[in-house]
């Protein structure tokens, strides 16, 4: 039986709409709890403001590094990295293309959007 391929997509700097400080607290807690869980996604794709979570001064960079160390593949939209001028500043994951993200979405058995 083929293992389940799950894709977690993060599209904003934080989690949910509303107060940015609360959104950062929520995504930090989500990623921490995800790291403590045995059920990890196969991939995390970040685009739009979500790519900022991979930058050097990100408040969740340590959680992202831990997830990658546990085998989660992290991919960031290259166009988005360039737009925010942080392409040379990401601390975890790889720079990908929109076609990479489309391929992940198409091949995933389950897609979770944050």
From TrEMBL:
- Give the gene symbol: yedF
Protein name per Swiss-Prot or TrEMBL: Sulfurtransferase-like selenium metabolism protein YedF
The protein's superkingdom reads: Bacteria
